């Protein structure tokens, strides 16, 4: 459960797509996204797509992901992937499980090369990379 919540938060910061179908967890994620939703003028649909294991399709939704990644220390204001922030979140979810930490390091290696001049698109691509790499390593369901 703890790793699942971190992975759910992870989408918001660009790590992966939500795992849980628990309504309380969905409400928690919606609450966490509210400031960024307002700041980036994203819609309820953009938030719902994240909560329902999908990606926003709008520019505003992608910018909401950027805002959340910056808020959680996974991406800098300039769009650079922040490995230390990512690993800090990953270690909270992995606990003592060495294989999960190793997988998180591999994901960080794979996704750190993502680059796009548009910071919202950069955040979206980073989120997608992290999800895809987590699925490859069986850390989350597709």
Rg, nearest Å: 13 Å
Total E-strand runs: 0
The CATH topology assignment is Recoverin, domain 1
**Span of the ends, CA to CA:** 17 Å
Secondary-structure class: mainly alpha
Q: Could you characterize what this model shows?
A:
This protein has helices at residues 2-13, 23-40, 44-51, 59-71, 83-94, 98-111, 119-136. It is an all-alpha fold. The chain has one domain: Recoverin, domain 1 (Orthogonal Bundle). The longest helix is centred in the first third of the chain and has 18 residues, at 23-40. It is globular, with a radius of gyration of 13 Å. The relative contact order is 0.18. Mean pLDDT is 77; it is low at 1-9 and 11-21. This is Odorant-binding protein 2. Belongs to the PBP/GOBP family. It holds the Pfam family PBP_GOBP.
Key structural traits:
142 residues, Recoverin, domain 1, disordered N terminus
TL;DR of this structure?
The chain is mainly α. The chain is about 65% helix and about 0% strand.
SSE arrangement:
Layout (H helix, E strand, L loop, with lengths): L1 H12 L9 H18 L3 H8 L7 H13 L11 H12 L3 H14 L7 H18 L6
Helix pairs in contact: 1-5, 1-7, 2-3, 2-4, 4-7, 5-6, 6-7
GO molecular function: odorant binding
InterPro entries: PBP/GOBP, PBP_GOBP_sf
Family: Belongs to the PBP/GOBP family.
